[in-house]
Design brief:
This protein is an all-beta fold. The chain is built from no helices and 11 strands. Strands 2, 4, 5, 6, 9, 10 and 11 form a 7-stranded mixed β-sheet that branches. A 4-stranded antiparallel β-sheet has the order 1-3-8-7, with no helix packed on it. The N and C termini lie far apart (37 Å).
Length: 123
């Protein structure tokens, strides 16, 4: 499966952005998906995940209550809705897929990665 993330940009603190992850292939519904982010000089961290069927989701502590994840398997897309953005949310955001039912918070469990999209939140 190939992934392409899009939707990043520059936004003021308190604003919102919606990221999309578009996948190729007819078996996307078999893949759990995770969103990760990496700020300069920091480790890549788990942001949110969603199971292959979309029934289970999970969030990193830093985004709980502000970010939501959803998927449309018919359209082969996963979306990340970000609200109440903070300067510390500034990072490159990556979507990743793993051929399993449940998402994982461990980036090493993912086999396929999108190219990343930059999100910059100004104060």
């Amino acid at each position: 499966v190939q992934l392409q993330a899009s939707g990043g940009g520059l936004v003021q603190a308190g604003g919102s952005l919606r990221l999309s992850c578009a996948a190729s292939g007819r078996t996307f519904s078999r893949y759990a998906v995770g969103w990760f982010r990496q700020a300069p000089g920091k480790e890549r961290e788990f942001v949110l995940g969603i199971s292959s069927a979309g029934g289970n989701t999970g969030y990193g502590d830093s985004v709980k209550g502000r970010f939501t994840i959803s998927r449309d398997n018919a359209a082969n897309t996963v979306s990340l809705q970000m609200t109440s953005l903070k300067p510390e949310d500034t990072a490159v955001y990556y979507c990743a897929a793993t051929l399993r039912y449940s998402y994982s918070t461990n980036r090493r469990d993912y086999d396929y990665w999108g190219q990343g999209t930059q999100v910059t939140v100004s104060s």
